[in-house]
């Protein structure tokens, strides 16, 4: 029997909502559950690619049938539940990694598009049931998810398939959402405070405490694994005065979220997060007068700014109180301004290819820096512009696959982007649309009406929503600078 | 989850479950077993029967609880562990690491929940955490971090974040923002829409979502990259970065700091027994010495000193001691890489450890590595032949022989005059291995050494090399009285040596020994005659064979056997 989640306590708990943690507690369910996902994915592909009578289809259907029956036999029930990026089999969360995330992602996407939050499979299920269900699941449709779920259930019933029971996704209540935001805010605030303390210690040549930094990164990893939207939303705060600290935390959040998207495990995300949070530690050795200089930098000043990657390596040797020497962090700090062709700065004398974590942090750093207002960039670029630049300008030297994954993570309009809708309303991007083919249609918080009246907190709407004729209700026509409208984006996330 | 400010009231409970559904006795017993198992984990190795019994007992403590519930939640106070309101472990006022309650409490853990299955899957991991927490210094990770990092599936915990006590302040509000009226907002929006139409800043076609799904090739690429990230030798990469910084930055203070870090890294590498990393660092230091520009004499000296410091007896002894004690030895090639970087001064320490090491697996590795180091530093090797420390000199002599170090002949010849018999034997052996004319010349004297082994080694070496200048001395011995008093091995060595060098000129004497009769018809003793037969076999000429045949019907079995072996040829006589 799988362990269950306990009731919430007054403590900070590491349990994921509705989950039993990364391990889930039941190795058999985890293993068999993953196998079921692979089989379902395989059957989906077979059904899509070949005629029904093809042996590959029959084999794939037999396999998924056997897998589901085996689970039902051992667990007495079989329920697949979708939650964020995760799939739960009964109460056990399946582990995502690089080997399986494509199949997970495809299945999640199809289930979301059909409005399926839970799927219960009866012991009577057979290959024919699976064939009909999987065919219907992949049928093209422009209807919204709830309508599709109704259609799917009706079609299954008329085809005599009663082995599947469906339920729509559980909506996150306002209370849950507020709690998630509260948690995210606390994690973020602690992150900024710990980074400030770290930088200050390094600046005065003291050995800073790593324990707090570790706790912060643990919090960020937990948060990203359970509910990333709230935390990513906070990266929009972009506080001018605390740029260096908020930037480090933002880069950590983006890196961990991107790492999750790339299938990294919890402890790998921890490594990545630690490295990301330290990536600019070298700036604590650059005079503040230069960091905060508003005018252009002369050559000498620029040299000092450009020194921060290697100064970061030296600064991290100062962290001797740390149990482990942060070698990986040193390398990320050193490489985060290098390009994939090994140019950039600092210049490599002993040539070596960049590490994956350095490339991830480079993308997160580039995005957050370019979209932030800071001393020598009073007008930030819009997130969409930055994204296009990272994608199209190979001279930026970012890893194209990681940029691609980053856009997949943030959507084409990243969280916090102010957009003008074709209804002449203003919206702030709240979250990426969970439907994978709707990257350009995020969930948006409408913050002004067509008459220009600003609203707080505004209303959340899904840009993938359509009217009865299948026409989208709202479409983004432009991204805008929030200052032009007197809007402080962060206010809508705090 | 709620905010830490609520924590003063302690963990919340589900109001429906305020009372325990069974007695506290099995929980108390379980906590007692956890304590005992934690102690056993600390004191004994896993194969120890006491350890095994403690773990078995602990595992057996869970089923009575699982018969009642699937999860066991414990509350932790300063000195007690409580189940509901009943204390089940701890001791009031005991703030030592022995008290599990205090151990968890001091790091902020306030609640622990064990889930059914824990006893099989994670009990050992959990006990290891307790041990680490008990032994850890205040600088090390606290239990909350340890629990987080260990990612246990069958344990949940609640904690108060003691690191954040006092609060962390508020999020900054992002600075002042000028308010904009509704009319202006509306106007700006319309302008923006016009701009958008005119410029087409966002082309939705650019953002075909399917472009951003990773294909199989890209996923494979990410696989490879992740593997590379984790296969990457971080220490070596950091070493490379440090040397890059040193070369690129001319500022003296920066270089000084880099050098300090290089020295620190060297210690870390040695501590981690990362020998290929040590070798890499030393190699790159040398590259930097040769290549970097504007290096001050002081910095150059510090760079050079790195290898010298490692070669000094104190540092190198530490390394060798660590190797002697390590359960898993590095590969020979890795050890060799480091030894190649050592300075000559390190050789004596290596020799010392060759004789000292208790680790039989280490010895051949050390020997091979020492060979490489000695081969590259002959003059030091020669110097060490006469080292005061007997162990060092012994290994140096052996190594000189094994490496056939010509330059060592003089030193070895001097050793032949030493009073220490063992050293003379080794020197003779080494000279024999070297086998050069100079070595043979040195050995010539050793034929008259007072020690039998030295003499035998010398004569055998000269026999093997057919060193003719020794003939006169050998002849003196085989014709003299001394050889007749020697044991069979020495007799054979001398006669064989004589036979190998004398040619037909020696047959007459050998014939007289083998076949001749002395005063009153008395023959030489059997062993001497047999040795003469063997010597004749070594001469091997027709005349020598004829002489041997005369004795073919000899009645003395020892002599007859020797004769027949000699007649069969040199191979036979050697057996």
Question: How would you portray this structure in words?
Answer:
Chain A is built from 17 helices and eleven strands. With 494 residues, chain A is α+β, with helices and mostly antiparallel strands. In chain A, the strands form two sheets. Chain A has a five-stranded antiparallel β-sheet. In chain A, helix 6 (174-203) runs antiparallel to helix 7 (210-226), helix 8 (228-234) runs antiparallel to helix 9 and helix 14 (327-335) packs across helix 15 (356-370). The longest helix of chain A is centred in the middle third of the chain and has 30 residues, at 174-203. Chain A has helices spanning 27-49, 55-75, 101-113, 127-137, 145-158, 174-203, 210-226, 228-234, 243-261, 266-277, 288-291, 299-306, 308-317, 327-335, 356-370, 383-392, 400-410, and strands spanning 12-13, 79-83, 86-89, 92-93, 118-121, 164-167, 418-421, 426-431, 443-448, 454-462, 476-480. Chain A has three domains: 27-167, no CATH class; 174-409, Hypothetical protein af1432 (Orthogonal Bundle), CATH 1.10.3210; 418-492, no CATH class. Chain B is mainly alpha-helical and 575 residues long. Chain B folds into five domains: 10-162, no CATH class; 234-311; 313-376, no CATH class; 379-465, Leucine-rich Repeat Variant (Alpha Horseshoe), CATH 1.25.10; 469-575. Chain B contains 31 helices and five strands. Chain B has helices at 25-43, 49-60, 63-66, 100-105, 118-121, 123-135, 143-150, 182-199, 216-231, 234-248, 252-271, 275-291, 297-311, 313-325, 332-341, 346-356, 362-376, 378-385, 390-402, 409-415, 421-434, 437-446, 452-465, 471-479, 482-485, 488-502, 507-514, 526-539, 542-550, 557-568, 570-574, and strands spanning 71-76, 80-83, 86-90, 109-115, 155-159. In chain B, strands 3-2-1-4-5 form a five-stranded antiparallel β-sheet. The chains are: A alpha+beta (494), B mainly alpha (575). Chains A and B meet through strand 1, helix 3, helix 6, helix 7 and helix 10 of A and strand 4, helix 7, strand 5, helix 8 and helix 9 of B.
């Amino acid at each position: 029997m799988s362990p269950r989640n306990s009731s919430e306590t007054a403590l900070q708990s590491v349990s994921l909502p509705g989950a039993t943690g990364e391990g889930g507690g039941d190795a058999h369910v985890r293993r068999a559950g993953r196998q079921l996902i692979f089989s379902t994915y395989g059957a989906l592909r077979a059904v899509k690619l070949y005629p029904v009578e093809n042996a590959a289809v029959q084999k794939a259907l037999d396999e998924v049938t056997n897998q589901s029956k085996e689970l039902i036999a051992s667990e007495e029930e079989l329920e697949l539940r979708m939650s964020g990026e995760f799939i739960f089999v009964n109460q056990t969360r399946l582990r995502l990694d690089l080997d399986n995330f494509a199949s997970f992602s495809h299945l999640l996407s199809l289930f979301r598009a059909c409005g399926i939050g839970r799927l219960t499979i009866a012991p009577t299920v057979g290959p024919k049931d699976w064939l009909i269900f999987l065919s219907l699941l992949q049928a093209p449709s422009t209807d919204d998810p709830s309508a599709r779920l109704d259609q799917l259930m009706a079609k299954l019933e008329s085809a005599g398939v009663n082995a599947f029971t469906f339920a729509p996704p559980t909506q996150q209540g306002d209370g849950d959402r507020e709690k998630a935001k509260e948690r995210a805010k606390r994690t973020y605030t602690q992150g900024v405070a710990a980074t400030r303390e770290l930088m200050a210690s390094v600046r005065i040549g003291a050995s800073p405490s790593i324990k707090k930094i570790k706790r912060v990164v643990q919090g960020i990893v937990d948060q990203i694994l359970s509910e990333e939207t709230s935390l990513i939303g906070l990266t929009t705060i972009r506080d001018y005065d605390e740029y260096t600290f908020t930037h480090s935390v933002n880069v950590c959040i983006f890196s961990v979220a991107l790492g999750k998207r790339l299938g990294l495990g919890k402890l790998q995300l921890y490594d990545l997060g630690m490295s990301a949070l330290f990536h600019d530690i070298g700036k604590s050795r650059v005079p503040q007068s230069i960091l905060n200089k508003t005018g252009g930098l002369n050559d000498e000043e620029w040299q000092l700014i450009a020194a921060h990657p290697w100064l970061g390596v030296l600064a991290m040797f100062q962290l001797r109180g740390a149990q482990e020497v942060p070698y990986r962090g040193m390398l990320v700090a050193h490489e985060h301004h290098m390009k994939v062709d090994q140019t950039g700065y600092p210049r490599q004398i002993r040539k070596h290819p960049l590490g994956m974590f350095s490339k991830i942090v480079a993308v997160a750093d580039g995005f957050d820096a370019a979209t932030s207002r800071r001393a020598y960039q009073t007008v930030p670029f819009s997130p969409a512009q930055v994204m296009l630049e990272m994608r199209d300008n190979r001279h930026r030297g970012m890893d194209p696959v990681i940029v691609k994954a980053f856009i997949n993570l943030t959507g084409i309009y990243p969280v916090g982007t102010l957009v003008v809708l074709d209804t002449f309303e203003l919206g702030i991007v709240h979250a990426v649309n969970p439907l994978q083919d709707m990257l350009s249609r995020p969930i948006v918080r409408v913050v002004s009406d067509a008459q220009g009246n600003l609203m707080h907190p505004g209303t959340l709407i899904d840009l993938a929503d359509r009217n009865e004729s299948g026409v989208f209700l709202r479409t983004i026509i432009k991204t805008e600078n929030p200052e032009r409208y007197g809007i402080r984006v962060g206010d809508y996330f705090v | 989850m709620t905010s830490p400010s609520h924590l003063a009231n302690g963990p919340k409970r589900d109001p429906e479950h305020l009372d325990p559904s069974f007695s506290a006795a099995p929980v108390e017993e379980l906590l007692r077993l956890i304590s005992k198992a934690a102690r056993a984990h600390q004191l004994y190795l896993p194969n120890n029967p006491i350890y095994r019994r403690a773990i078995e007992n602990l595992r057996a403590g869970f089923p009575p609880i699982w018969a009642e519930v699937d999860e066991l939640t414990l509350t932790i106070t300063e000195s007690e562990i409580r189940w509901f309101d009943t204390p089940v472990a701890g001791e009031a006022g005991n703030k030592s690491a022995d008290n599990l309650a205090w151990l968890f409490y001091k790091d902020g853990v306030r609640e622990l929940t064990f889930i059914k299955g824990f006893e099989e899957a994670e009990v050992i991991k959990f006990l290891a955490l307790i041990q680490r927490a008990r032994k850890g210094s205040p600088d090390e990770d606290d239990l909350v971090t340890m629990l987080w990092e260990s990612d246990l599936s069958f344990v949940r915990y609640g904690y108060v974040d003691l690191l954040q006590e006092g609060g962390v302040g508020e999020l900054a509000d992002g600075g002042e923002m000028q308010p904009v009226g509704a009319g202006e907002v509306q106007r700006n929006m319309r302008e923006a829409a016009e701009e958008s139409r005119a410029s087409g800043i966002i082309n939705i076609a650019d953002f075909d979502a399917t472009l951003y799904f990773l294909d199989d090739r890209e996923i494979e690429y990410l696989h490879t990259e992740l593997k590379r990230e984790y296969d990457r030798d971080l220490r070596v990469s950091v070493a490379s970065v440090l040397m890059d910084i040193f070369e690129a930055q001319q500022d003296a203070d920066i270089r000084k700091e880099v050098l300090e870090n290089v020295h620190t890294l060297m210690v870390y590498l040695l501590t981690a027994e990362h020998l290929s990393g040590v070798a890499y660092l030393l190699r790159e230091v040398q590259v930097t010495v040769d290549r970097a520009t504007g290096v001050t004499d002081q910095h150059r000296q510090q760079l050079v000193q790195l290898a010298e410091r490692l070669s000094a007896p104190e540092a190198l002894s530490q390394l060798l001691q660590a190797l002697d004690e390590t359960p898993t030895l590095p590969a020979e090639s890795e050890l060799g890489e480091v030894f190649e970087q050592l300075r000559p001064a390190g050789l004596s320490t290596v020799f010392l450890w060759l004789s000292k090491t208790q680790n039989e697996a280490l010895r051949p590795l050390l020997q091979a590595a020492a060979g490489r180091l000695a081969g590259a530093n002959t003059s030091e090797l020669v110097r060490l032949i006469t080292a005061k420390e007997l162990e060092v000199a012994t290994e140096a002599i052996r190594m000189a022989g094994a490496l056939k170090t010509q330059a060592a002949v003089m030193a070895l010849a001097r050793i032949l005059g030493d009073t220490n018999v063992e050293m003379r034997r080794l020197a003779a052996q080494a000279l024999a291995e070297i086998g050069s004319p100079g070595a043979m010349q040195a050995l010539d004297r050793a034929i008259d050494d007072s020690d039998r082994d030295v003499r035998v080694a010398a004569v055998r070496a000269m026999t093997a090399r057919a060193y003719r200048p020794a003939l006169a001395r050998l002849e003196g011995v085989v014709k003299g009285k001394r050889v007749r008093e020697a044991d069979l091995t020495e007799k054979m060595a001398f006669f064989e040596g004589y036979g190998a060098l004398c040619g037909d000129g020696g047959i007459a004497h050998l014939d007289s020994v083998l076949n001749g009769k002395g005063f009153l018809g008395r023959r030489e003793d059997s062993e001497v005659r047999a040795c003469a037969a063997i010597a004749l076999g070594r001469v091997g000429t027709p005349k020598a064979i004829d002489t041997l045949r005369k004795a073919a019907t000899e009645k003395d079995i020892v002599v007859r056997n020797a004769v027949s072996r000699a007649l069969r040829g040199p191979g036979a006589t050697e057996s």
